[in-house]
């Protein structure tokens, strides 16, 4: 049976709302462990405040942060899926209805890039990317709103035949430039190779990786550990108060490239907003994470 627009509208709106009112369970566990291991007293208190705030928001249906970000979706469509009605428009309609009815109300964060006029609507918003999954009859949808704290500091640079050390140095430079501003501790996603746009996509997908999911590539696993150790030695600490934990994870992905090698660095703040659902061809909706 076809997947109808009404289901897509309801699911995408629900994913966005859930991403604003709770932190993912795996992220809460990482933050709790970081707080227990923290040696700096101020940072330990900060971790407790962060977790208490997130727990209160989830319990009372409030926003974890007032910056609700730019609505962003990644949609992966099975090649055996059939649709009954528009898809992109359904996502736009879901966000518009949520913006008009959500309690508590959300701020106008959609901004014209040149006039800076703010609204709940705008050209190409929500931002939606599409990909294909061969020979399945479901649609996977990930919602990962992008807020100011992390979005301001993300970066990309193209290298020519870089070494591993060149790439790692660049990632650390980007993190140092951001300092404590992305609402630490962060998750860092790194995309290496492909083309300009593909590297950015790799970084975005890498930053969404569930905590604890192993990195199967030994070269990338080594990079991730070295970068995580180096970032946590910078001393920025929870929300910039100083301390042992400035990053929860560094996730690296790569693609075959040319002599030019773009490297993209993406951040998620401590809330680590990412929710995902699968809409099956028979109409069932399955929560994947978040």
Would you mind describing this structure in some detail?
- A five-stranded mixed beta sheet has the order 6-2-7-12-13, covered by helices on one side. Strands 8-11-9-10 form a four-stranded mixed beta sheet. Strands 1-3 form a two-stranded parallel sheet.
- By secondary structure, the protein is α/β, with parallel strands linked by helices.
- 38% of the residues lie in helices and 24% in strands.
- The two termini are 27 Å apart.
- It has two domains: 3-22 and 64-147 and 273-289, 2-Layer Sandwich (60s Ribosomal Protein L30, Chain: A); 148-268.
Tell me the series of helices and strands, N- to C-terminal. EHHHEEHEEEEHEHEHHEEEE
Residue runs with pLDDT of under 50 for 5 or more positions? none
User: Taking all residues together, what is the mean pLDDT?
Assistant: 96
**Shape summary:** globular
Query: Which percent bin holds the helix content?
Result: 25-40%
Secondary structure: number of strands: 13
- The CATH topology of the largest domain turns out to be 60s Ribosomal Protein L30, Chain: A
The Rg value, from CA coordinates, equals 19 Å
Strand order of the largest sheet: 6-2-7-12-13
Main sheet, how many strands, which sense, barrel?
A: 5 strands, mixed
